Structure formats: structure tokens, C-alpha cells
Amino acid sequence: GAVVSQHPSRVICKSGTSVKIECRSLDFQATTMFWYRQFPKKSLMLMATSNEGSKATYEQGVEKDKFLINHASLTLSTLTVTSAHPEDSSFYICSATGFPNEKLFFGSGTQLSVL
Amino acid sequence: GENVEQHPSTLSVQEGDSAVIKCTYSDSASNYFPWYKQELGKRPQLIIDIRSNVGEKKDQRIAVTLNKTAKHFSLHITETQPEDSAVYFCAAIHTGRRALTFGSGTRLQVQP
Fold this sequence. Notes:
Structural class of chain B: mainly beta
Order of helices and strands of chain B: EEEEEEEEEEE
Helix content of chain A: under 10%
Helix content of chain B: under 10%
Oligomer: heterodimer
Radius of gyration of chain A: 13 Å
Mean pLDDT of chain A: 90
Order of helices and strands of chain A: EEEEEEEEEEE
Radius of gyration of chain B: 13 Å
Number of strands of chain A: 11
């Protein structure tokens, strides 16, 4: 299947700092990328949908000023958690779909721990 | 929006037995239903999917059935092996959004 790369895999940071997570599609053009959040033993909850070159669409209850999403190219989307707090600690995972494969592929995830 | 319910939340079977996980969805316009397998701390891996124009699809030990009228679909794993142990998520795509809605997950444990 297609390859989606996500970095970093693990981040530990102090409360109040910002953290940037990158998601790259390595062998296809990702016209749409999705960002999910997953708490321990829970399902994946969609945070936002981003289309290349346009503003992200956020799900209800997700603060767009706190979770900044940029999808400037067909191969890269970034999620920045601004002024992170302990309650933001979670597993963040991106997914991408696009030409030529319309199926959805996931990045490897980022475990964020805010102290 | 779409709502996907998944049962059971946990499932324990003996090696060699079959396992069945069931999901229901609410949006009759949904037309794509993938199943993912997720191991602890890893990314979800697509294991099988089905589109609404077919009722059943099989890939070796894994099969998925879809009943559009009842709006439910099921994952069937035969001859289970310990390496099948993981969390399985069903999902449905909400027409026009291209964003998957996931079920709550089923933790499958295959006892050797």
C-alpha cells in the first residue's frame, strides 16, 4: 500500500510549549489529509480535514487556534499543538488519501506527552 | 452526521476458532466500509474493505459482509491465530466528506 510518514513518533514537552507534527505522503499525491486523535483504549476521533492549498475544516469542539493545520503541498501536512497542556497528551495520527489511490492510509502516529 | 456502533468491545477466542465483529451505521448514503487492525502504539492497518455495491468480500481467512437494508456490516476471521490479536476498528465513509467515522473498536484476543 501507499506510504504515509509521520514525525516525530514521540514527543515529551513542558506545558506551554508548542509542538509540530509532520505528515508526509511518500509515493502519492495527498489531496486530502485527516488528523485524528486517539486516547488510550479509545477509538480514533477526527479532529480536522485539510485539503491541499485551502484552510482546514475542523470538527465541532476542536479549537482551530490551538491545533493549527497547514497543508501547503500535495505531500505534506503539519499539525501544530500550540501552548500544549497535559490534557492535550494523546496519540495523534494523520491519514491521507489522493491520486492515484483513493484509499485511506495512516501515518505511524505521534505520542504526545505534556508534562 | 454518521454514527458507527461496533460490538463486542472485547472478544476472546481459542486459536483456530472463528471471530465475528459487527458494526452498524446510521447514514444510508455511506458507501465504503473499511476494516482496520491496530496493534498497541501502531498505526491502523487496512485489512479489508467493501463497497456498497457488493454484499460480501473475502480475502483468505478474512471476510466482510454488508447488509445495506439493515445498515450493518461484519468482519469474519476464520482459523484465528495468536497474531490476529489486536484491536479492530470498523469504519464508514460519510458521503461528500471523505472522512471516515470509526467504530469504538474491538479488542480481539486469540488464546493459543
